[in-house]
Design goal:
It is built from eleven helices and two strands, in the order H-H-H-E-E-H-H-H-H-H-H-H-H. It has 265 residues and is mainly alpha-helical. Helix 5 runs antiparallel to helix 11 (231-260) and helix 6 packs antiparallel against helix 7. The chain has a two-stranded antiparallel sheet with strand order 1-2. The two termini are 20 Å apart. Strand 1 and strand 2 (87-90) form a beta hairpin. The longest helix has 30 residues, at 231-260. It folds into two domains: 21-90, Winged helix-like DNA-binding domain superfamily/Winged helix DNA-binding domain (Arc Repressor Mutant, subunit A, Orthogonal Bundle), CATH 1.10.10.10; 97-260, GntR ligand-binding domain-like (Four Helix Bundle (Hemerythrin (Met), subunit A), Up-down Bundle). The protein has helices at 9-21, 25-39, 62-74, 95-105, 113-131, 137-148, 157-175, 181-196, 198-204, 209-228, 231-260, and strands at 78-81, 87-90.
Length: 265
């Protein structure tokens, strides 16, 4: 049976862009209100002026306006309160919610493992160097606690899978301490992509005791460099860690491809 042709990453991204361009009126109104929030420097907790929320302001029906407000609330940008003193208020967007929303953008058009690691190999070493010598005792203890979750040899396949996820959580915890919040957000987002990809989940579920030992080796050495404030050493260790992780993921993906006979992209 001939193989079904898979869309190239470029064609998939083009299709994704076209889908984003199909804008409905509630989306347009939601964007307009968002722009007003930005232009008027409103902050979380500020009430959105009632005049912005009137149907006649947007030449739209009440139903269309309600849909627009639902969009803003779903995005985490606004929240509604009823009763005395109620109204629509600006809300602070939660980081985890924002990452999940961006994740959904790639849910059906996932990047490849090399695409993700091309960025991780650049950004994770920068992150490691940036936090060297700057972590509080509490933050350092949090990272040590993450490592303790997979120090002991797992007794079940489920426990081993949990340890793989804990290893990824270590990188998320480290990124949360980045002074450069954009760098930290991007590093967390890349880890989240790996966790959501079907191919990666299958690889993480495969038993491999050596992988746990390698991860521990890199992360313990990394914490030592961070604690002593050696940013250059921390960056080198993290770069080697990312390169080793990429090799492993690609090797396992190739083995799975050969088993299934599917073309790997």
């Amino acid at each position: 049976m001939p193989e079904t042709a898979r869309p190239s990453p470029a064609s998939g991204f083009s299709q994704l862009c076209m889908e984003l361009k199909r804008r409905k009126r509630p989306d347009i109104i939601a964007d307009r209100i968002r722009e007003q929030i930005i232009d008027n420097s409103l902050m979380p907790g500020d009430r959105i002026p009632q005049a912005w929320l009137l149907p006649e302001t947007h030449n739209a029906s009440r139903g269309t306006l309600r849909e627009a407000l639902k969009i803003l609330e779903f995005q985490g940008l606004t929240t509604s309160k009823t009763g005395p003193g109620g109204g629509v208020f600006v809300a602070g967007v939660d980081t985890e919610q924002a990452i999940k929303m961006v994740d959904n953008l790639f849910l059906f058009h996932p990047p490849s493992i090399p695409d993700i690691y091309a960025m991780r190999k650049v950004l994770e070493p920068q992150l490691a160097a940036s936090v060297a010598g700057r972590l509080s005792p509490e933050a350092f203890a949090t990272l040590q606690d993450k490592i303790r979750l997979y120090e002991e040899e797992p007794k079940t396949a489920e426990a081993e899978y949990g340890q793989r996820l804990a290893e990824l959580d270590f990188h998320i915890a480290l990124a949360r301490h980045a002074e450069n919040t954009l760098l930290g957000f991007t590093c967390i987002f890349l880890v989240s992509l790996l966790r959501d990809m079907t191919a990666c989940r299958a690889i993480y579920k495969e038993p491999n005791p050596a992988l746990r030992e390698a991860g521990l080796h890199y992360q313990i050495a990394l914490l030592r460099a961070i604690k002593t404030g050696d940013g250059e050493r921390a960056a080198t260790i993290m770069r080697e860690h990312m390169e080793a992780a990429e090799r492993y993921m690609l090797e396992r993906a190739e083995i799975r491809r050969r088993r299934s006979g599917d073309a790997y992209t």
